[in-house]
Amino acid sequence: MMSVSNAQETPSIQICRIMRPDDANIVGNVHGGTILKMIEEAGCIIGTRHCNTQSGDRCLAALARVERTDFLHPMFIGEVAHVSAEITYTSKHSVEVQVNVLAENIVTGAKKVTNKATLWYVPISLQNVDKIIEVPPIEYSSPEREEAGKKRYEAQKLERLEDKVRNGEIIMSVSLPEPFTVVCSQSSLIHLVGPSDCTLHGFVHGGVTMKLMDEVAGIVAARHCKTNIVTASVDAINFHRKIKKGCVITVSGRMTFTSNKSMEIEVFVDADPLVEAEKGKYRAVTAFFTYISLDKENKPLPVPPLKLEGEEEQKRFEEGKARYLQNKAKRLADKERQQ
C-alpha cells in the first residue's frame, strides 16, 4: 500500500507492507537487506516522481549515495513496515530524500522507529543514460531549512570526492590464474537456507539444491569458454545427508574433463549448521554436470582443452573421460535400438 502527499513544499510518500517469512531469518528477525531495499524503493519512487514534474526528458532517479544508517530496533515477521520518504533538499542535479521506517505490531498496536536514512539521487535521462537532468527546486518552510540542506549537500559531495580519490589509489593489479586451468574457472556460491527453501519438516527442497548446483556449474563453464553455455546432462545426483533450515551451504564447482564439444563439471554441496555448530560441516550432495558451448546461432562450438596441473587433476580428467566414453557408448546403443 502507498499513500502520497502532493504538498509542493515537501513532497512525500508512505509505503506499507507486512513482513513475511521470506523477509526474515530463521528466528523471525527481518533481514537488514529487506529493510534497506524498501527504503531505496521509497526513495526512488519519490525522487523519480519529483524530477518528472517538469517538461522535457523523462528521467529515473538513480541512487548516488546512502548516508550512515542505524538499525535502531529489530523488526519481526507479522509486523507492518511503514516506510515514509520526504524530499528535504534539491540542488541543480541531485535530490536528498530522508526516510523513516516504523514497525507496527498489528496485534498490540505498538509502534517503534526502526530506521532513519538519508539518500541522494541523481536524475538520469531515459533517452540518454549519460545525461543528467536538472532537478526542479522545492519550496522550503524556512531559510534555515534550506541552508541546513545546503550544508548537508556540500558535506556529502566532499566525502564522495574524498572516497573516490581514496579508492582510486588502492586499485591494484591482480595476477590471474592461467586461462583454461581448473583453478581459473572453479567457482563457489554461499547460501543461507531460509524458510522458503524448505519443506514443512524444515529440510531443504531437493529442487532448491539442484538449482544452486546448476548455477555454479554454469558459472564454471562460462568462465572456461567465455561463450553462451547450456546444460547438456546431469549424472546421478547423490543426496548423502539432509540439509536443515538455518544451515549455510557452500556450493562449489570445478572442471574435471573436456572433450571437443562438451565439458564435465563436478559440483558438491557442503552444509554448515550455524545453530548446531558442534555437528560440524558435512558433505551433503555431489554430482557431475555436462555443459556445451554455443555460438550466437545456438550451434555447438569447440570447447577449449583443459590445462591440467598435477597428478590429482590428471586423475580426475581420466575418470571424467571414462564417464564420457561410457555415456557416449550408451547413447549410441540407445540410438541403434530405436532404429
UniProtKB/TrEMBL annotation:
<dbReference type="Pfam" id="PF03061">
    <property type="entry name" value="4HBT"/>
</dbReference>
<keyword id="KW-0443">Lipid metabolism</keyword>
<keyword id="KW-0677">Repeat</keyword>
<dbReference type="InterPro" id="IPR006683">
    <property type="entry name" value="Thioestr_dom"/>
</dbReference>
<dbReference type="InterPro" id="IPR029069">
    <property type="entry name" value="HotDog_dom_sf"/>
</dbReference>
<dbReference type="GO" id="GO:0052689">
    <property type="term" value="F:carboxylic ester hydrolase activity"/>
</dbReference>
<keyword id="KW-0963">Cytoplasm</keyword>
<dbReference type="GO" id="GO:0047617">
    <property type="term" value="F:fatty acyl-CoA hydrolase activity"/>
</dbReference>
<protein>
    <recommendedName>
        <fullName>palmitoyl-CoA hydrolase</fullName>
        <ecNumber>3.1.2.2</ecNumber>
    </recommendedName>
</protein>
<feature type="domain" description="HotDog ACOT-type">
    <location>
        <begin position="183"/>
        <end position="297"/>
    </location>
</feature>
<keyword id="KW-0719">Serine esterase</keyword>
<dbReference type="InterPro" id="IPR033120">
    <property type="entry name" value="HOTDOG_ACOT"/>
</dbReference>
<dbReference type="GO" id="GO:0006629">
    <property type="term" value="P:lipid metabolic process"/>
</dbReference>
<dbReference type="InterPro" id="IPR040170">
    <property type="entry name" value="Cytosol_ACT"/>
</dbReference>
<dbReference type="GO" id="GO:0005737">
    <property type="term" value="C:cytoplasm"/>
</dbReference>
<feature type="active site">
    <location>
        <position position="214"/>
    </location>
</feature>
<keyword id="KW-0378">Hydrolase</keyword>
<feature type="active site">
    <location>
        <position position="25"/>
    </location>
</feature>
<feature type="domain" description="HotDog ACOT-type">
    <location>
        <begin position="9"/>
        <end position="127"/>
    </location>
</feature>
